[in-house]
Amino acid sequence: MASQSRKGKIRSGSGDGILARVTSTVSESQIVNYGKQVASDATFITKKLMKSTGKAAWIAGTTFLILVVPLIIEMDRDQMMNEIELQQASLLGAPPAPP
């Protein structure tokens, strides 16, 4: 019984505990390696997708600002001018023109 420690546990000759042996066996498994490879590939694809999506969002956003916002402003300005003309016509007593 010289191989027992003070608490009565038997030590293995290699110095590795059962948990360490199981962990090393599992980490060297083909399934674990395949899972790691799939996770790595998924991360790479996600990064590429996010980068291209960001570029597309930037292009769409700047195009919207350059082309659509001025159109909206001009349409709003035209609508205001029509409303002002209708108000002036009603103040002067002229019948409102049909739109």
From TrEMBL:
Keyword vocabulary terms for this entry: Membrane, Mitochondrion, Mitochondrion outer membrane, Protein transport, Receptor, Translocation, Transmembrane, Transmembrane helix, Transport
Q: Name one GO biological process term.
A: intracellular protein transport
Q: Which Gene Ontology cellular component annotation is one that this UniProt entry carries?
A: mitochondrial outer membrane
Name of the protein in question: Uncharacterized protein
Q: Which residues cross the membrane?
A: 56-73
Is Metal-binding one of the keywords UniProt gives this record? no
Please name the InterPro entries in this protein's record: Tom22, Tom22_pln
Q: What is its main location?
A: mitochondrion
> What subcellular compartments does it reside in?
Mitochondrion outer membrane
What family does the database annotate? Belongs to the Tom22 family.
What does the record say about its membrane topology? Single-pass membrane protein
Species source reads Protea cynaroides
Top-level taxon of origin: Eukaryota
